[in-house]
UniProtKB/TrEMBL annotation:
Origin: domain of life: Bacteria
Family membership noted in the UniProt record: Belongs to the ComF/GntX family.
Protein name: ComF
Annotated signal sequence range: none
Coiled-coil zones: none
Classification via InterPro entries: ComF/GntX_DNA_util-trans, PRTase-like, PRTase_dom
TM ranges: none
Length: 239
């Protein structure tokens, strides 16, 4: 079978050739730490009053933006599988090359919900697809019916203040949420909210706030594929 790279379209035995993969700005524990909330160029920019840990695969710049766009808007599930595989590799590398960090080992994955209207037009929730792939590889269960997103509007065109107000209005927990999972597993202490892109952090923080109010005993992390830097971020120069 002749395969071509999803990014440069040159012949490649893998969905993304090693040249394009080399061009991607991946976050690393060595350079950026295990928790990006403690890394200034990220931690200062994202809202994170309700969750304690942030793990991101890469910077939201070209060429990985092509994978994200294809996954979200062009029904390229292969792009999603590539992102999930890379993220799994990152988590496995951390597990094997850093001291044990119990607070970062998620026991349950919760994908950011998609509105019914968006789900009907896209036919899948990209965060749920990622969570299922990552959870399957790392043997972590997922729950997809824990929260609801109402309305039809997207957030990518909104400013930070508008995103905050929007997130407070559109998200709510389902009546059962993860009650049964918590009740049946007293050792469940650490969960991770999964999303494809984190920009200002207001969406995941709003969801984490709802979870914290209902389950104050839980430690909440966020797992995302990419982080969108502000226009003058030092990360853009580094990338």
């Amino acid at each position: 079978m002749n395969l071509s790279c999803l990014l440069c379209y040159q012949a490649s035995p893998a969905p993304v050739c090693h040249w394009c993969e080399h061009d991607i700005f991946f976050f690393s524990a060595k350079d950026h730490g295990n928790n990006l909330l403690s890394f200034g160029p990220v931690g200062r920019h994202v809202k994170h009053s309700a969750y304690q840990q942030l793990s991101v695969l890469a910077l939201h710049t070209y060429p990985i933006t092509t994978l994200i766009h294809g996954f979200k808007f062009q029904h390229s599930l292969t792009s999603g599988k590539v992102l999930a595989k890379w993220f799994v590799g990152k988590q496995q590398h951390l597990a094997h090359h850093t001291p044990p960090l119990p607070h970062t080992t998620a026991q349950l994955l919760l994908p950011v919900p998609l509105s019914s209207w968006r789900l009907a037009t896209r036919h899948y929730n990209q965060a749920a697809v990622l969570a299922k792939s990552i959870g399957s590889a790392l043997n972590i269960p997922i729950c997809t019916n824990w929260a609801i997103r109402q309305g039809m509007s997207a957030q990518h065109h909104l400013g930070k203040a508008q995103r905050l107000q929007h997130a407070k209005q559109v998200f709510s927990l389902t009546p059962q949420c993860i009650d049964k999972l918590v009740a049946s597993n007293p050792d469940l202490k650490r969960i991770a909210i999964v999303d494809d892109v984190i920009t200002t952090g207001v969406t995941v923080n709003a969801l984490a706030s709802l979870l914290r109010a209902r389950y104050p005993q839980l430690s909440i992390s966020v797992w995302a594929m990419t982080f969108t830097p502000p226009p003058k971020s030092s990360l853009l120069a580094a990338g």
